[in-house]
Structures are given as C-alpha cells and as structure tokens.
From TrEMBL:
Keywords: Cell membrane, Membrane, Transmembrane, Transmembrane helix
Pfam families named in the record: BatA, VWA
Domain VWFA residues, every copy: 93-292
Membrane-traversing stretches: 12-28, 53-75
Species for this entry: Stigmatella ashevillensis
Listed PROSITE patterns: VWFA
Protein's UniProt name: VWA domain-containing protein
Length: 336
C-alpha cells in the first residue's frame, strides 16, 4: 500500500531557515572565544592535539540537527494513504442497551460471567464496524447514557471496558433503558436506526413499562432487537469467597421473561435472539446487522486517511539534544 508523506502544519518548516543561522553563530562564537596563552606552549605542542579537538566542532552541528528534527516533528508529518475514502458512506445508527444488574454476574458462561462475555463480544462487534455510528446505554435499576452516538469506536470500547456491576442501583429497568436509547436516536437523520437490547432478566424496576417504550419505538419507526443472555433457571451465582480467596458459587434461580423480549421485538419490527454461549451472542449481533437496511450518514466529497508520524522525529530531537548536553558537560567539556 503506497503511502505519501504530508505535513499538517507545513508553515513550521520555515523555521529550518534558522538552522544555518545557528551554525554560523556557533562558528562565530568559536572564532571569538578567548584562549589561555602559556609561555611554554611548545611543551604541549609535542603532545599532539588529540581527537577531542576534532570532535568539539561537532557539538553545534548536533544541536542544529536537534532543532531541525524538532521543527519537522512540530510540522506533524503524516502518512497519507494513496487510496481516497469516499465520504458518501452507508451506515446505521445503533444504540446498545446493556444490562448491568447483579444477575449479569451469573457464571453460566464459565470461566467468565455473563457481563464479561457480553463486553468481549460487544468490543469485537464495535471493532468490526466501519461507518456505523454507535452509542451505549447502561441500565440496572435506572438507565444512563454512557456514550452518545459516535464514529469514534476507540472511545466506545474504552467506555465499555470501564463499566461494571454494582455501581448503579440494582434492578432491571428495561423500559427506562429503551426510552433512554430511543431518546438518543430521536433526532438522528439516518434512515436506519436501531436499538439492541442485551439483558438476562425480567423487568422489575424503572418508571416506564417496557411495552410503553415499545410503543414509543413503534411511533418513531425504530426497531428493537432483543438478545436474552443466559440459560435461565438455576445458574451458578457468586456468593462471596472462601478462606483461600476463591469464589464460592451456588445455584440460584434467576427469573427471565423471554415472552416480554419477543413481544417488544415483534411490536417494533425487530427480532428476538437467545444467547446461551459467547458464540450465540456474537451470532445474534451479526444477525441484527444482516437484517438492517443501510442508510447514508454523509453526502458527497472524499477524504484521505492519515496516520501521525511525528513521534520518531520528536524522540530523535530529544535524543540529539540530550547527547549534545551530555558531551558538552562531560567528555567534550572545555575551559574557559
């Protein structure tokens, strides 16, 4: 893949004209520098000049190189991809509503719990997106927006990495989560807008009923795709730790309501999926994308892809400056 070098701030390169001035100034100072005179200089002459004398003029050159490389770094060299990316791209606006209730700590996805697996699969799902805007809503007893709709997938993945259970009031407020997600999509101009609900339980908290939220989605023409995570029934659930710090598991009944999730999906034109293992969750998310109509987020124009390459130049500048200071203070130190 051929890459072209470009500078984000090429005007900074005008500063390179100062480099010859620095070299001339160093040469002039060396010519005018005072020297010590000895009445018996012939004694020193017989000893030879030594190679340090030949290295001293190199110090100003090293300093000038450090300045030159630093200026190049400040101009921000960038690698430009030869292929031009069309901005008339197609994409979907997706808001993922992720359950953070304590039931997501269940260990039926051993060796990891449900939330850990959901985060891993979601991170992979986000990484595979190209032009889809993604937002993240988390919920337990209440619902909050963790990441608004964005194309910056790195930010969404970082936010996803930080979330955990037992931070929000416990419960499963599915209705509130859907209403919050719909609010993020309400003003979107994308033709394809969708909510993906990932939960492992039944609605037992919140101020808005799930079916009322489904009616809102129906009026906004936003399909809701529901994914039920977990096997249901009695599943291993952490009950603390033993004397050796190992997690103690006990089979606990965790209520689920697949009929509710099926009803929500059916009313809004979405689909219902059941994920009893990591692969099932991955396939569910992929099926969501396969069933969606793609829409244009941006119109017209083209753009090249850039990669910042100033880091090695900046490191080289610091290295040269440090080398010059070290030599001047030690091996090539002069008097006076």
């Amino acid at each position: 893949m051929p890459l072209d070098l470009a500078f984000h701030s090429p005007q900074v390169l005008w500063g390179l004209l100062l480099v010859p001035v620095l070299l001339f100034q160093a040469w002039r100072e060396r010519r005018q520098r005072a020297v010590l005179r000895f009445s018996g200089a012939h004694v020193f002459a017989r000893q030879g000049r030594g190679f340090r004398v030949y290295l001293l003029p190199a110090l100003p050159v090293v300093r000038a190189l450090a300045v030159a490389v630093a200026l190049i770094a400040l101009a921000r060299p960038q690698s430009r991809d030869a292929r031009v990316r069309d901005l008339s791209v197609e994409g979907i606006d997706i808001v993922v509503a992720l359950d953070l209730s304590t039931s997501m700590e269940a260990g039926d996805f051993r060796p990891q719990n449900r939330l850990h697996v959901a985060k891993e699969v979601l991170a992979e799902f986000i990484s595979n997106r190209v032009n889809d805007r993604i937002g993240l809503v988390v919920f337990a007893g209440a619902a909050y927006t963790q990441a608004p709709l964005t194309l910056d997938y790195g930010v969404v993945r970082e936010v996803l990495k930080q979330i955990r259970t037992r931070v929000l009031e416990d419960g499963t407020a599915i209705g509130d989560a859907l209403a919050t997600s719909l609010n993020r999509l309400r003003d979107s101009e994308a033709k394809s807008r969708v909510v993906v609900l990932i939960t492992d339980g039944d609605n037992n908290a919140g101020k808005i009923s799930p079916l009322d939220a489904a009616s809102m989605a129906q009026s906004l023409k936003i399909p809701i795709y529901t994914i039920l995570v977990g096997k249901g029934g009695k599943v291993p659930f952490p009950q603390g730790q033993d004397l050796f710090g190992n997690t103690v598991w006990r089979d606990t009944e965790i209520p689920i309501n697949p009929e509710l999730l099926q009803d929500i999906a059916s009313r809004t034109g979405g689909e219902y999926y059941r994920a009893t293992d990591p692969e099932g969750l991955k396939q569910g998310l992929q099926k969501v994308l396969d069933s969606l109509e793609r829409s244009k987020l941006m119109e017209g124009g083209a753009s090249a892809t850039y990669r910042e390459d100033f880091h090695p130049y900046l490191l080289a500048a610091f290295g040269l400056a440090a080398l010059e200071l070290l030599l001047r203070a030690t091996f090539l130190r002069v008097f006076p």
